[in-house]
Structures are given as structure tokens and as C-alpha cells.
Amino acid sequence: MLIGVPKEIKPDEYRVALTPAGAEMLTQAGHEVAVEKNAGVGSGFTDDFYVEAGATIVDSPDEVWAKAEMIMKVKEPIAPEWPRMRKGQLMFTYFHFAADEPLTKAVVASGATAIAYETVELPSRELPLLTPMSEVAGRMAIQEGAKYLEKPQGGLGVLLGGVPGVLPGKVLILGGGVVGTHAAKMAAGLGARVHIMDINLERLRYLDDTMPANVNMLYSTRYAIRKQIQDSDLIVGAVLIPGAKAPSLITREDLSLMRPGTVIVDVAVDQGGCVETIKPTTHRDPVYTVDGVIHYAVANMPGGVPRTSTLALTNATLPYAMALAGKGWKPACSDDRALKLGVNVVDGHVTYQGVADAFGMDCRNVDDFLA
Q: Could you tell me how many helices (H) and strands (E) the chain has, helices first?
């Protein structure tokens, strides 16, 4: 199979979908890899690394898309890339369809097959291709939140760790999944007072047994959220419903309960966000203020640390890419239920229920296409 790796063109996106090590494994398995010129530079991989790994460097994105049977990306195709998608082509990347109706319609219209990293799901309910970026984003949420709590950035002027004689800052984390867990680890390590809210009691019990003593667990209700946000310095949105739009847990009215200079980092923004007033931002212009509350809403947070993120992502995606390239997507998905759950669009039809529900579209059973 010919695998194409275009350069990411989403603003401030420096990751690349395949490392030279990954390209070498694919070429040694008998596949061709076409990498767009300078696609890996943002992550520290120059073209010569890919050439040494057996890949071919291609000058233009049009040529990569035109040649490739399978496209490997990091972020969803954006509008300039939509005309390059074609019927029968396999695309393997993050899509987050449920938060983007124009993208969904464009991929459906193209006739391409879309396998979304974020909905590949193991029997344990783990999302193996989302996990590494969730780990990065959770840790970054505290790093970025701490920065914007500084007074010159418009924040409350609170040091999360405090000092002797002064209470540490309070961090409220909505969601106890991968993002929330890693955010809590970072915040706890800084010495903050950390509260994790979730509706899964089993998860809360597990976290209570494993987290440091300065991390507290709370069952999530609307009443409890309204109480907790009143004295929180940093709020992290970390709620995920796989393949579907994130629930709105903080309303516009709730902002009036917060102190001016409170910081919200909504990691769920790429799935629509769990704060009503959230909208996607970029690394170049990451924050905005509503009713005195600072909103940080960068939709590709791990893109800010591309070296770490690219290595972590390829570690997770490469085994699946090898299976797709080696067997073809239909046999690979037939053999692996987790990978089959990643199939969101096939030949003009939505095949993932969460995406169909988000836009009132019909959902076809993916098995109809695997027969």
C-alpha cells in the first residue's frame, strides 16, 4: 500500500503523523511511504531522516493526496484539504466529527473512508489512540492554566503551590478520565488543592486510592459544580463522551459565580467543549475573556509540544497503521473490533452512531461494508 503523510496545515500545528522510525517499519514491510516536504520539521525530523528510512519526499500536498491509498494525519482535514479527498481513499487521523458538521458533510460527500483515532476503542473502554494526546493535554492544562493565573496575563495572581503561610491555589477538574487524571497529577505535584468531579463512583473510588492526599474526589451534580466553581482558581474541562459532543457543564450564567481572573482550560473544546461560552482558539491567540473569566480553548493543545506529542502518538497508531496497510482496511477492521469502532464514515455514509446523532443523520452499520 502507498501511505501518504501530508504536512499539517491547521494553524500552529507542528506534529506529524509518522516518525522516521514508523516510516522505516512500513517500508520494511513492503509498503511505500510518501512524505510531504518538511512535514516533520516542526517535530524535529528533517527530510533526510525519512529518506534514510526508505520514504519518498514529495514536494506538494496535492501530489501526496493524489498518490496515497491511505492518508495518515494528526488533525482533521481542514477546508483547503477537502477537495483533495477522494472516493475509496482511506484517511486515518483525528476527526472529532461530532463537533464539526461542515467537515462531516465534506468527508461524506468525498466518498472516502474515515477511521478516527478518537473512537478506536478496546473492550476495556480504553481509547488507545486518544490516550497519549489526552495525557499530554491533561498535563499541559495545568501548565497553561498556571501561566494565565499570573496577574500580567489577567489572572487572579495566584501561585498554585502557595507558600508557607499562604493556602495553595484550588484546581477543579471536571472529569476523572485520562485528561483529568494527568491534570490532577500535575496540579498535585505543584502542591495545589485539587478537586476531581465525576459521575462514575467506581472511578472516583479508584482515584481516591491512587491519588496523592491533596487530591479530593467529588460526585458531580449541577449543584455541586456551582458550589465548587465559586472559589476555584483554575477549572479544567476534561469530560469526554467518545465520538459525541461533550456535555455543557458550566453555563454562561455560572460565570457570574466565579471571581474575575478565574481561568478555565477546556480540553474538551475539540468535541464542542463542556463550557457553554467556550470556542476554539489557537496557540498564537489562546485566550479570551467572558464576564471577567479567562477562557483557554486551544483545540490542538499537544501541538504546542510537538516533539513529545509526535513520538507518543506514533507509538500508539503505528500498530494499527501496519494492520491497515498490510491487510487492507476491511480485513483489518473485521479482525479487530477496536479498530472497527474507529470507522466513522464509509463511501458517503456515517457509520458511527454518536456522529449521526449529533447532526440528525442516518447511521449505517459498518458491518454492511465489511461483508
A: 13, 15
326, exposed or middle or buried, with CB in 10 Å at 0-12, 13-18, 19+? middle
The DSSP bridge partners found for residue 210 are none
Q: What contacts 320, CB < 8 A, 6 or more positions away?
A: 92, 120, 129, 332, 336, 339, 342
Active site residues: 96, 270
| Structural domains in the chain, sorted by start | 2-119+306-370 (3.40.50.720), 131-299 (3.40.50.720)
Tens-of-pLDDT digits for all 371 residues of the chain? 999 999 999 888 999 999 999 999 999 999 999 999 999 999 999 999 999 999 999 999 999 999 999 999 999 999 999 999 999 999 999 999 988 999 999 999 999 999 999 999 999 989 999 999 999 999 999 999 999 999 999 999 999 999 999 999 999 999 999 999 999 999 999 999 999 999 999 999 999 999 999 999 999 999 999 999 999 999 999 997 776 778 889 999 999 999 999 999 999 998 889 999 999 999 999 999 999 999 999 988 999 999 999 999 999 999 999 999 999 999 999 999 999 999 999 999 999 999 999 999 999 999 999 98
Q: Which residues pair with 281 in a beta bridge?
A: 298
Q: Measure Cα distances from 50 to 31, 39, 212, 313 in Å.
A: 14, 10, 43, 17
Q: Which residues, 6+ apart, have CB-to-CB distance to 316 below 8 Å?
A: 128, 129, 131, 132
Strand order in the sheet with 343-346: 56-58, 32-36, 2-5, 70-72, 90-93, 113-116, 343-346, 349-350
Burial 201-228 (b: 16+ CB within 10 A, else e): eebbeebeeebeebbebbebeeeebeeb
